[in-house]
Design brief:
The chain has a 7-stranded mixed beta sheet, sandwiched between helices. It has 17 helices and 7 strands. The protein has 2 domains: about 50 residues; about 280 residues, Rossmann fold, CATH 3.40.50.300. Helix 5 crosses helix 16 and helix 11 crosses helix 12. By secondary structure, it is an alpha/beta fold. The structure holds adenosine-5'-triphosphate (ATP) and magnesium ion. Adenosine-5'-triphosphate binds next to helix 5 and helix 15.
């Protein structure tokens, strides 16, 4: 049999699989031009999301000027409200959860761990959905060249995202603000700065660029570039979520410096645990050298992919609680077939037209705990937290 040259073989594999990915997005998986949030919220869901009862909402519809809400012809009941309508209700009744611009700073949360496959992108996208449903204004920044998060928003990154549409143009000094990179998504309340493979190639260019700087201070300054860029657009958001690459590199150090808080997904497994410890060591070393004054509002490990059928995972969760103390969230992100099956359709469980209640309850508990951690830093939310018995 003639030998097949490895590179030729790769050409075939690439052609077939890129073609498949395109077709997946084209067929039924809704490319971003057509993708929309197809979930409607029942009047009782809407009531709890807005904080007013159903009758009050129904009465306010005309006043707000909604086009007629879709009704079921069989019984004339409202089929449901869109998230935009829920947001309009919140605006009308003054129940938007936005931070107070006079007292509360927008928070930049990096989903980061140098360990691969621990659920960073899944956490980032689903937390963004959670926050958007709660009514916060969210910016998601994808800094991973694998662009999983970008794909979850309906893009085929390498066909549709030019490197100039990513953070690269700003990092390369070609743009003065990050405005050029921010795009609206189909998901109300979420904007996105996308990623593509070029971010990976840029790592080398960045090293060269840094090496060309003539003073250590100028070299160090480069690592604050992403932070500076985010500050140019942060004002219009409550939360900025950054998805990071699973490795130490120029971009991931920029993410570390840009972040106000670190959300560190980690599975409760031996190798993941030791990688997470290693990640913390690197954060201490690199941030300590580059920005010794830097502090984080919080650094917390989120236990992901948790499968309680395994005794070892329960034990490791206890190990994590002992070692990380208050820096591990109490709630765990369970391994869930809904998460896997939704991802295969480029969707998250929150955006399924008929969501599986159990997985939403689980994610609400996880993200609710992170939300409280976030709210603690906003002075305007103290009274609210006190009312809920949280200090
Ligand atoms: N809770 C969960 N239940 C089941 N599968 C999950 C869950 N969280 C993540 N996954 C799956 O695990 C895989 C890795 O998740 P994800 O891409 O979020 O990890 P990551 O840390 O971002 O990976 P990378 O390091 O490559 O960026 C994906 O196939 C994802 O669908
Ligand atoms: Mg990822």
């Amino acid at each position: 049999m003639p030998a097949v040259l490895a590179v030729d073989k790769l050409e075939d594999i690439l052609a077939n699989s890129e073609n498949f990915l395109h077709r997946m997005h084209e067929l039924g998986q809704e490319p971003h031009q057509q993708k929309q949030l197809n979930r409607l919220f029942s009047p009782s869901e809407a009531a709890s999301m807005v904080g007013r009862d159903r009758t009050t909402l129904a009465r306010a519809e005309a006043e707000i000027g909604f086009a007629a809400t879709a009704r079921n012809p069989a019984n004339n009941r409202r089929v449901g409200y869109t998230l935009e309508q829920i947001q309009a209700f919140r605006q009308h009744f003054g129940t938007l959860p936005w931070r107070d611009p006079d007292t509360d700073e927008p928070v930049v949360i990096a989903c980061q761990n140098f360990k691969g496959g621990v659920g960073k992108s899944t956490t980032c996208v689903n937390f963004a959905h959670y926050l958007a449903l709660r009514g916060y204004r969210v910016l998601v920044i994808d800094t991973d060249s694998q662009a999983t998060t970008t794909s979850m928003f309906g893009y085929v990154p390498d066909a549709e995202i030019d490197q100039d549409a990513t953070v690269l143009a700003y990092l390369g000094g070609h743009q003065k603000t990050l405005d050029y990179a921010v795009r609206k998504t189909y998901f109300p309340n979420i904007d996105l700065i996308p990623a593509c493979l070029a971010l990976y190639e840029a790592e080398v260019a960045i090293v060269v660029h840094i090496a060309e700087q003539d003073s250590p201070a100028a070299r160090r300054a480069f690592f604050s570039e992403l932070r500076n860029g985010i500050q140019t657009v942060a004002d219009r958001y409550d939360v900025i979520l950054v998805d990071s690459p699973p490795a130490l590199g120029m971009i991931s150090i920029n993410v570390l410096i840009a972040a106000d808080a670190l959300l560190v997904p980690s599975a409760a497994r031996m190798y993941d645990f030791s990688s997470t410890v290693q990640f913390f060591r690197m954060v201490r070393n690199y941030v300590g050298q580059i920005a010794p004054e830097k502090s984080y509002r919080w650094i917390s490990v989120l236990t992901t992919l948790f499968d309680q059928r395994y005794e070892s995972q329960k034990q490791f969760f206890e190990v994590m609680r002992t070692c990380f103390g208050e820096s591990v969230f109490q709630r765990v992100f369970f391994h869930s077939s809904e998460v896997i099956n939704s991802a295969a359709q480029f969707l998250g469980p929150y955006e399924q037209p008929k969501p599986a209640r159990k997985v939403l309850e689980m994610m609400d508990a996880v993200f609710g705990e992170i939300e409280v951690t976030m709210l603690r830093d906003w002075p305007s939310k103290r009274a609210l937290l006190n009312q809920r018995g949280i200090t």
